[in-house]
Give the backbone structure.
Amino acid sequence: MAELDADLDHIIPSSLLPPVWAKLVVGFVSLLCFARSYDGDFVFDDSEAIVNNKDLRAETPLADLWLHDFWGSRLSSNTSHKSYRPLAVLTFRLNYYLSGGFYPVGFHVVNICLHGGISVLMVDVFSVLFGGLQFTSKGRRVHLAPRASLLAALLFAVHPVHTECVAGVVGRADLLCALFFLLSFLGYCRAFRESSKEGTHSSTFWVLLSIFLGAVAMLCKEQGITVLGLNAVFDILVIGKFNVLEIVHKVLHKDKSLGSVSVLRNGALLFRMVLLISGGATVLYVRWKIMGTGPPAFTEVDNPASFADSAWVRAINYNYYYSLNAWLLLCPWWLCFDWSMGCIPLIKSFGDWRVIALAALWLCLIGLIHQALCSEDSHKRRILTLGLGFLVIPFLPASNLFFRVGFVVAERVLYLPSVGYCVLLTCGFAALSRQTKKKKLIAAVVLGILATNVLRCVTRSSEWRSEDQLFGSALSVCPLNAKVSWERKSCFLSFQVGETEALKVHYNIGKNLADKGNQTAAIRYYREAVRLNPKYVHAMNNLGNILKERNELQEAEELLSLAVQIQPDFAAAWMNLGIVQNSLKRFEAAEQSYRTAIKHRRKYPDCYYNLGRLYADLNRHVDALNAWRNATVLKPEHSLAWNNMIILLDSTGNLAQAEAVGREALELIPNDHSLMFSLANVLGKAQKYKESEALFLKAIKANPNAANYHGNLAVLYHRWGHLSLAKKHYEISLQLDPGAAGTKENYSLLRRKLEQMQKKDV
């Protein structure tokens, strides 16, 4: 430990070594790196996980958070991605409550502060990894290898690969997971100090607390449970001093003393392993039961390699993905928010030059593993073992080894593995400093890396502030991605690339344009996305939707039919196909499409609503009412379904039932002016003029520029005999909509009646 610190003597000034100063420096630098993102928008996945997530709103019971996935869908749904992170969603809900709405600044500030806190905590974590935290007889903590822990913490704090977790609000899950992961590890380390001071009982408490914190980490993000595996490795190889080389030597020589190995005879160690294994198994079993005991469903575009028929093609591509992750840690310059959709073409033969990356990765790993397990230097074994443990173990859930994941490469999953990378890099700098006399040059290189990473973090944080900048930054990294590239001549973005580079359409830019109402430009982007990836069903669905709205129904039907042919369980595409078929008067086909959508997504209120519209067009009134009732049961705030029920009952003369439905709807959605208007019409026909007037006025107050609101209130006053008020609101209605024929006719009748009354008075 002293030797390691001596090797770094020329890199870290002694003035920064006291723990308080070290933590202040690390905290300040970490905040400096990502402060630029504090006023950014909600971008990319933030829209679905936060803005469109009903679990953040007060009307959703807190208990539902424990039954829903990260995106607000029920875990039992076949469309759920099974990402169970209720504690992360709870923090979003608190953000929403404290901010008074979806104001991104508060969400971003929490993320930046979380990263700062984790970076400060890393000083203690790296102190353990580089030699352990020792305590004096008075309980005072003494940092060992302070230079190494400070340098590693700085490398962690400024690593650009963390930008996605910090600048993207959904990265909160990774940050919280990392926080409790590290607390669990430190708690487990505390068990050994307590066991030596206060006995086994105290040691057991800290082990159990560590397991509990690991479960909390998993409730923030799935990979949190891997801390139990890391704790086991730490216990066996570091605390138990298990020497793999010695065991292998005895096995090969059939040494009879194998049974006397201290680790195998250590009852306390075996007891802790039982606690870790049983605790981990229990947590995983409960997690499995909650998610419905079924794996998430992903498509080929999410992770093409996992759908390859050949096992060796899958294996070689998985290993290539590992090498790309390693490269992102080593050289975090080419960063991209999305690496799917053809961004990384599959390796299909050993003649592909990219296999060199696989060979380089495994040569490095095998060399490090050999040194970690077989080196005669126990301190070196400790550092390399823990470094590799932190690098590999938290990454295992993203490795495709145990189950298919829904991405190719994701920078967010490297937040925890980067801890191991920082350990290995710090160890490498120390070894390099030991081998050369040009120590100032090594110091300059280290400072250069830190400064470069800080600048890269600031630049990358700025790119995450808006979707326009984020999507633009991805082009140079993934020009072949149907979700990440765009047309060079577009005036929407000013980012330009080389003259000869193929410039294609970005799915998310198309979506962004569609959201802003620029359908013409969005169509171009979606068409190119489909051209780049003919199986991109989400682009087909979105393009079909826009074409449907533009009444280009034939092409919309072709696209949506192809989408459901490629992905038969795509419920949204089935519903949209039904809407198009309904518009084409193909009613039987439309009904079948709606039914298929509901088959694949049983709780689908919007589909029930559209099915009700189909039945209403066919004059199947009872079926229409039943469909709309199903929509309101599944989604009580479905205003359109309530309105259609009221209007249908009103138009068929069922005023009493229409009134009852209207009152029920307003109890659930008390501030919906369209419901007030519909119920006011019913009450007016029922000659409940006073109550009808009150609802009309309330609706007009909420939406004063609705011409029909004023026109229907005028009709009410006309019937009621309040002719001057009727005249006033007829005139307001005609000012707002001069072409309303019905209002003109009613106004003419009123004027003739007023003229007749004036003649009688004369």
